[in-house]
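Subject: Predicted fold for RING-type E3 ubiquitin transferase, 760 residues

User T.R. writes:
Posting the sequence so we have a shared reference for the thread.
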Amino acid sequence: MDPVPVRCLLNSISRYLHLVACQTIRFNPIQTCIGNMVLLLKLLKPLLDEVVDCKIPSDDCLYKGCEDLDSVVNQAREFLEDWSPKLSKLFGVFQCEVLLGKVQTCSLEISRILLQLSQSSPETSSVQSVERCVQEIESFKQEGTLMEHMENALRDQKDDIASLDNNHLESIIQMLGLISNQDLLKESIAVEKERIRSQASKSKEDMEQTEQLIELVLCIREHMLKTEFLEVAKGISIPPYFRCPLSTELMLDPVIVASGQTFDRTSIKKWLDNGLAVCPRTRQVLTHQELIPNYTVKAMIASWLEANRINIAANSCHQHDGGDASSMANNMGSQDFNRTESFRFSLRSSSFTSRSSLETGNGFEKLKINVPASLCGESQSKDLEIFELLSPGQSYTHSRSESVCSVVSSVDYVPSVTHETESILGNHQSSSEMSPKKNSESSSNVNHEHSAAKTYECSVQDLDGSGTMITSHTIKLVEDLKSGSNKVKTAAAAEIRHLTINSIENRVHIGRCGAITPLLSLLYSEEKLTQEHAVTALLNLSISELNKAMIVEAGAIEPLVHVLNTGNDRAKENSAASLFSLSVLQVNRERIGQSNAAIQALVNLLGKGTFRGKKDAASALFNLSITHDNKARIVQAKAVKYLVELLDPDLDMVDKAVALLANLSAVGEGRQAIVREGGIPLLVETVDLGSQRGKENAASVLLQLCLNSPKFCTLVLQEGAIPPLVALSQSGTQRAKEKAQQLLSHFRNQRDARMKKGRS
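User M.O. replies:
I've generated the C-alpha cells; pasting them so everyone works from the same file.
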C-alpha cells in the first residue's frame, strides 16, 4: 500500500522548514514557539521517512494521524505567511502556541502508533528509535509560555476582573514588549481588528477567543492606568483621571465620543481612522464618530499644569475646537514619559525580553532560542543558536509588510529582491508600500553568498552531521544523476533535495558542481517521484542568487513547463514556485515571458490546480506581469477568466487575484477582459468587504477601468460603487484613500460634464 498521507505530511513538513529558514520574524515569543515546532517535527520526520522506505509498517490509524498533523502543519505555514509586525502580538502568540500544542499532540499520537506497529513487526529494527522519540515528545514542555499567563489572567477575569493577578498582567505586558504608550495603543487597535476579522470568518471559536483577548487588553490598559506613574516633571506624576484610557498618555485635547467616554483626540482619532466603530473602553457600538471637546476636563488639566508650574508647548492647551492638536502631541503625547521604578519591572535586567537576542558577525545573524532539556539530550535546557545569512535586504523574507512579493506571494520560498525589482514594484499600482533599497544591496547579498561558498570550500573536510558537504560527495551525486539507474538517479535527486533545504552553502556548492543540467534532464522522467524530487531540488537551488541565472541559462524553462503539464500535484506546485523564484530577476522575467508555453501552463494551473498550486501560479504570474510585455501575454492566455472566479471570498484567493488584476488592468486587453468576464461586481464587492490590501488593489483596477472608458465608468456606477468608495476614502490605507478619492473626483467630473452638456 502506497503511504500517500505520509508522503503528503513529509512534503508539508519540508515546505514548513523551508519557510522557517526564510522567515524574518524577530518577535521573541513567536520565534521561540516556531523553533519548538521545528524541533518536534524534526524528531518525527526520520520515522516517517522510514515508513516511506517500508522499514516501519503502516496502517489506516497512522494515515489518519498523518492527515491530522498535515492539516496542523499547513495551518502553521499559513500563520507564518500571514504574520506581520503590524498584527496583534497577543493574538499572534496565542495562535502560535495553540498550533504548537496541536503539533505536539498529533506528533505524540503518530509516534505511539509507530511504536505499536514497530513492536508488532518482527522485521522492524527501529523500535528503540521510536521509543526514544515517544519519550522526548511526551516530556516536551515549553516553560514560561505567554499562554500560561494569559490563561491564568483570563480565568481570574471570569471570576472578578478587579482581582486579576497583577503578576500575570505584568508578565504579559513585558513579554509582549508593550514598553511604551504607543505600543499599547497599537496593540489595542490590532486586537480590535482581529475581532472584526473573526466576525467576518463567522467562526464561533475564533470570536470567543478574540473577545477574551480584547477583555484582557482592556484589563492591561486599566492596570497600567492604576499602577504606571508617568512623570511630566521630576517628582510630579500625572493623575490617572487626566490620562487617556486608550493610550494612557496625558489628554492634551480631551474629547467625548458617542458612548460618553473621554479620550485624547489624537488617540481616539487613530482608533477611528482604522475603521473601528466601538468604544475602546465600554465596547459599546458608536452611533456616530463626532468628537465633542470636553472643555471641563481640558480646563482641569490646564489648572493642574499651571498649579504645578508645568509648561507644555505654550498655548497648546488652550486651542479652540478644530485647532491642530498635533503640536501638543509632538511635544508630549507621542513621546514615552519617564516611568518610575514602581512600574519598570527591572526591564533591563529581566529574564524576559521583547525581542530576540541578536549577535552579528561575518555576515551572519545568530538567533538564540531556549530549548528544553528533553529535546537537547542534556540534563538542563540550553540556548539553540540558529544562524541566518544576513544582508541589508534580508535575502529571503516572509513578512507581509516587508516582502516585495507580499501582495501575492504565499509560496514557501520568497527570493531576495534586487533594487531593480523594487523600483518597478514601487512605481506600480498594485505593489506593496516599501522604501527603495540602495543599489549596493543586491550585490551585497551576492557577495555574502560568494563569501559563504569560498569559506565553505576551503574549510570543509568531510560530510558531517550538520549536512555540510565535501566536493567528492557532490561529484558522486552529480555522476549518479547523469549515469546511474533510475533508482540511483531518484535517490541522488532526493538527497540533493534534502541537502539544499536549509543550507546556503550547499545550494551554492551543488550549483557550482554541475548538478543543474542533470536535474533538468530528470524533469522529463516518466517516474513521477523522480520528477518531483528533481523539480524540488531545483526550487531549492533557485533560492540562491548565484544559481538563478545559471538555471535559466541551462535551459530550465522548457523542462519546468513540461512538469507543469505532466507532473503530479506536488511537482506542479514546486515547478510554479521555481518559476516564481527565477522570475525575481528582470532578465529571467523576460525570457520566461517570451516562452508563451510557460505562461499558458501557469494559467492552466491557476485555473485547474490544487489550492496550493493556484497560489504558486498566481505568485509566478504576478512576478511576470511586472514586465510590461508579459501583461498582454497573460491576458491572451485567458488568465483573467480564472482570476475573476478567484475573487469569490469563499475561495480564499481574493488578495492574490486582485493584485494580479491590478497589474493586468494597465493594458487595454486586460481591462476589456476584466469587464467581459464579469469582474466589475466582484471588484466593487472587494472594495466593500475585502482586506485592506484587497480594497486598495480593487480600487486601483476600478480606477483604470473608469479613466480609460466612459462605458466602463457607467457600469461601475451601476454596481453601486460610490458608498464603499466613500468609506474607503475615509478609512483605507493611504494609497487606497488616494485611489478612492481619484475615482470619486472622476465621477463628479463626469456628472458635471453631462449636466453642462444637457444645459447647452
